[in-house]
Amino acid sequence: MKTIKSIFALLALFLGIASCSDSTDDPLPVAENPLEEFNLTGSFEANGHALEIYSEQEGFVTGYNELFIRIKELSTGNYVSDAMIHWNPFMHMTDKTHSCPRSEISTTGDDTVYKGFIVFQMASNDDEYWELDLEYSFGGTTYTTTEQITVNAPSNGKRTVNVFTGTDDVKYVLAMMPLTPEVAVNDLSAVLFKMETMMNFPTVVDYTVAIDPRMPSMGNHSSPNNEDLLFDADTGIYSGKLSLTMTGYWKINLKLLNDQGDILKGEDVTEENEGSSLFFEIEF
Amino acid sequence: MKTIYSYGAWLGNLGKFMLALGLGLMPLSPQKAQAQEPILAPIIDSILPIDLKEVIIISSFNRGIEHKSQPKPLSTLDQYLESSKKVSMVKRGAYAWDPMLNDMTSERLSITIDGMRIFGACTDKMDPITSYVDVSNLSDIHVESGQQGARHGNVIGGALDMRLEKSNFRPLGWTGAVETGYESNNTAQIVGGELNFSNEHFYVDTDLIYRKSENYTAGGGEEVAFSQFEKYNLSTNAGYKVSENQKLLASFIFDEARDVGYPALPMDVSLARAFIGSLSWVQDSFIGDLENWETKLYANTITHIMDDSQRPDVPIRMDMPGWSDTYGFYTQTELILDDHHLIGKLDGYYNRSLAEMTMYPNDPNEQDMFMLTWPDVRTLNSGIYLEDKISLKESSVKLSTRLALQTFNVADDFGLNSLRIFYPDMAQRQTRMLKSVSAHYHRQFKALHFNGGLAYGDRAPSVSEGFGFYLFNSFDNHDYIGNPDLKNEKALEANFKLALPIKNLDISVEGNYFHTWDYIIGEVHPELDVMTIGADGVKVYTNLEYANLYNVSLDMAYQLTSELDWGGLVSYHRGTDQNGRNLPFISPLAYRSRLTYGHGNFSGTLTLSGALDQSDFSPDFGEDRTPAYTLLSLSLGKTFFIGGDTLYAKVGVENIFDRYYSTYSDWNNIPRMGRNFFMTLSYAIN
Predict the structure, then answer these.
(1) Which of the four, B67, B126, B253, B465, has the lowest number of CB atoms within 10 Å?
(2) pTM, rounded to two decimals
(3) What is the C-alpha to C-alpha distance for residues B538 and B96, in angstroms, rounded to an integer?
(4) Chain A neighbors of B357, CB-CB under 8 A
(5) How many CB atoms lie within 10 A of CB B102?
(6) How far is it, in rounded angstroms, from Cα B540 to Cα A30?
(7) What is the pLDDT of residue B26?
(8) Which residue in the set A225, A243, A246 is minimally distant from B370, CB to CB?
(9) Predicted pLDDT at B77
(10) What is the dihedral of CA B451, B452, B456, B457, to 10 degrees?
(11) What is the structure's pLDDT at A187?
(12) In angstroms, rounded to a whole number, what is the distance separating the alpha carbons of residues A242 and A23?
């Protein structure tokens, strides 16, 4: 490990020298893409515009997708600012069509970049597919387009979204927000929606998501000082603390409690019961 | 040139049968075989009666001929230590026993090699410092109880300083020796050799020893699986006289053990390796009236690889490597003014302790589970020690003090964040001030010697106690979590010794008492979930309000005739916390009785040793009642003169009745070695 560290240190030093010399050689400023560090997961051409969708992940995946949108005027190559954008994802199943939880689209610090999230409950397959309806308006004109998109299960196969019916007969969608896990106390966040209709998924407020992280490969042990996820009205997100005492595969067993403290879904982990039916998974 | 030469050979794999034959034949053949049996009478050094130190003479083979009290030049260092009156050993197998002084282990002791601080690299104490040296390169071990050991560091229980053997400019020319040995019980093979050159201006000593042992057999014939070990040790010492007054000294030790089994633990050690080096400058006179100025720079690095690859059945495979590097110095000088003998010493060390744990899931598609069990803790300790020995009429007083500053820095962010799971507000660095003061008094009333002392000292937590992360202790079957918020442990210590010679009988009574505030020990936290599969719970290091420890011993020596001596030792120990709860690893009443016969060239020793039932055991810390036991051992030695050469032979048998037993300090009650024959033969060409 020591050797690797010193190699990295040398490498960093080398890169440092290299980048210094670069900056003197190349004084010309380059037009920066504000979303350079993200992946372009889709680019749809319609109405003389290219709609670019960026994500941290590669492609659309089941679970929580934080997405950034830019609209490029193909004629000028300029990006449009101050547009209003609405979206509507549809899952065309063999027997029905439904939507999924998603946020409104808001502007960001850069006025050509818009942002929102979509929680896909399921992946596309040969017979069932997702479509994204986009309606955007600027300069007094409203445009619409519908594009088919592919939603994949996460490449590591770990569960980050749960669709379930609570003991109150309500159907819920609970999704973990992206997390870079570390051996430390991590900030864990999730979003919770109620499936009111096939198309309508309002945020559920003031419930509690109780967490119990376990390592099934290591005697199903837990970790100390975790904090259950509580609702924050300002962000609309459930947030808590997740302690991970080592690297590896962790199963975060969950229980959903309503504002009365009634358990709607999930079970305690005990000697007899190795895990809850409601859970997230992490591996690092 | 005087050459001392010894030759011997093992009896190979013919085992006990040949050994038994050899017992009869041995004086006729220049062969030597030996088995583990500590029948050593430690020699008490009392040049200055104020120093209540015990000196365990080890010395090398060639000097061993001069010391006939030496039982076996090639027994392990652990066995030498165990034969001492003050040191006891915690055993997790046949190798790397953990020394205890006044019922306290390494975190409360200072264990040094020629004054050098070294820290083991194993989170489970499988590599005490004593495992990185061997008898081949030591001359003696100085055992100083309580704050009398403060010269070497901040201690509560005392200090063990292992002194390297040096030719020390004696005009001996070239000397050499070859030694081999064999042990019957665990078919141990030992090969050793030394080659030294010394004259008045220069010396260089080299020693090499190799040991390989198979599993040993407990009393009754039960084989103790995973008790094998293999190790070798190479050491070199050199000195050069720059002038009559100035000396430059250097020492280097390389020690490597492989395939070490720990039958009492769930894991073994595939590699334990140490490089230990030092450079010293010694000057007889210093500035003004200051004399005996000695300055030493030293460095050592330890690699310790714990693994379970040899174990057939484990819930999960894991590797636990650890590293410990220490760099340090000291400089000391003496001043003699009328009735005062002053010593001043400045010292410092910097240690880096890092240990990892990687667990391999049974599902190969899963990621490895990794944690830092010691989060790269950097310890910096710098101290000053002052001592004054004052000679008065028929009495003397020794005053000493140490002041030190110790800082801890958790250098690895991964490790720091891990600990912050438990201690969210934990600082990366912390500094502690450590102090020690002691006063000792000696007075002679005619033949009666009285020694008494009062002392106060404190210590900082060890790396494991302060920063350990899920360290599994198989003794009480708990995972341990360090606690960076621990307070320093502080002890008030009182000790006395009365020695009274009555004609041929020497009686001495010795005792000490430690009242320790903020005694550091792990306490169960029931809300925490275990990490180790099968563990019973999690303990977090905590300060007890206080703990009391006392040790009393009665030592007698009686000269029956000019040839026959008797020695007896009875010791009693007790340790409790503020609620009267027993502390772990406290010896029950133990005794030893020894008859020694010496006439002309012949010597013999008959030893009876044992302990009473351990009634004051500590169930909270995984102890159960250890039953009483008694052992009988015998050894016989004879010197022959063949021409101008000397042949010294020693034969013996330990645990004559093949008792199956374990002691209070045997980890998880692993049984000790059963009946054991040994022989040694030393041949010196003059």
Answers:
(1) B67
(2) 0.85
(3) 26
(4) 246
(5) 24
(6) 56
(7) 29
(8) A246
(9) 85
(10) 20
(11) 96
(12) 42
The phi, psi pair for A218, rounded to 5°, reads -130, 55
Residue B40: CA count within 13 A, CB half-sphere: 30
Q: Are B652 and B677 in contact (CB under 8 A)?
A: yes
Instruction: Say which DSSP state B682 is in.
Output: E
Q: What is the mean pLDDT of residues A131-137?
A: 92
Q: By the CB < 8 Å criterion, does B244 face chain A? A: no
CB contact under 8 A, A183 and B359: no
The answer for A4, left when phi > 0, alpha when psi is -120 to 50, beta otherwise, is alpha
- Helices then strands, counting H and E runs in chain A, come out as 1, 20
Considering only residues 494 to 553 of chain B, which have any Cβ-Cβ distance to chain A shorter than 8 Å?
A: 527-534
Q: Are strands A114-120 and A106-107 parallel, antiparallel or unpaired?
A: antiparallel
CA distances (Å), origin B641, targets B603, B645, B647, B679: 15, 6, 6, 18
The per-residue pLDDT for B59 is 63
Whether B421 and A184 lie within 8 Å, measured CB to CB? yes
CA distances in angstroms from A138 to A47, A76, A198, B135, listed in the order given: 13, 15, 30, 89
Are B534 and A219 in contact (CB < 8 Å)? yes
Q: Which chain B residues contact residue A219 at CB under 8 A?
A: 315, 530-534
From residue A173, give the alpha-carbon distance in Å to each of A38, A178, A201, A253, A265: 26, 16, 9, 16, 12
- Going by C-alpha positions, the residue among B382, B34, B405 that lies closest to residue B186 is B34
Determine the pLDDT at residue B482: 96
Is A220 at the interface with chain B, CB within 8 A? no
pLDDT at B50: 61
Spell out which residues of chain B touch residue A244, defining contact as CB-CB under 8 Å. Answer: 421
Q: Distance between alpha carbon B126 and the CA centroid of its chain, in Å?
A: 13
Separation between Cα atoms, residue A180 and residue A82, nearest integer Å: 32
List, run by run, the mean pLDDT of 10-residue segments along chain B (686 residues). 32 31 30 30 42 70 46 75 87 92 93 95 94 88 93 94 89 80 85 87 92 93 93 94 94 96 93 96 90 96 94 90 97 93 96 96 92 96 96 91 97 95 95 96 89 95 96 92 96 94 90 95 93 92 95 93 91 92 91 89 88 89 89 84 73 89 90 87 62
- What are residue B522's DSSP bridge partners? B541
User: Does ipTM surpass 0.85 in this model?
Assistant: no
pLDDT of residue B288: 87
Q: Which of A222, A246, A283 sits opposite B371 (nearest CB)?
A: A246
Residues 6+ apart with CB under 8 A from A21: none
Do A218 and B368 lie within an 8 Å CB cutoff? no
The whole-angstrom distance between A157's CA and the closest CA on chain B is 12
Beta strand ranges found along chain A (DSSP E):
39-46, 49-55, 60-61, 63-73, 84-92, 97-98, 106-107, 114-120, 129-138, 141-149, 151-152, 161-165, 171-176, 185-194, 208-214, 227-232, 237-243, 249-257, 263-265, 279-283
| Three-class secondary structure of residue B686 per DSSP | coil
φ and ψ of B320, to 5 deg: -135, 80
Q: Which of A188, A217, A223 is the mutation pick for testing B, counting most B CBs within 10 A?
A: A217
- Mean pLDDT over residues A35-52, rounded? 86
Give the residue carrying structure tokens 């390389």.
B254
CB contact under 8 A, B528 and A225: no
Q: How wide is the angle at C-alpha A56 spanned by C-alphas A202 and A195, nearest 5°?
A: 15
| pLDDT tens for each residue of A151-200 | 999 888 899 999 999 999 999 999 999 999 999 999 999 999 999 999 99
Tell me which DSSP letter residue A275 carries: S
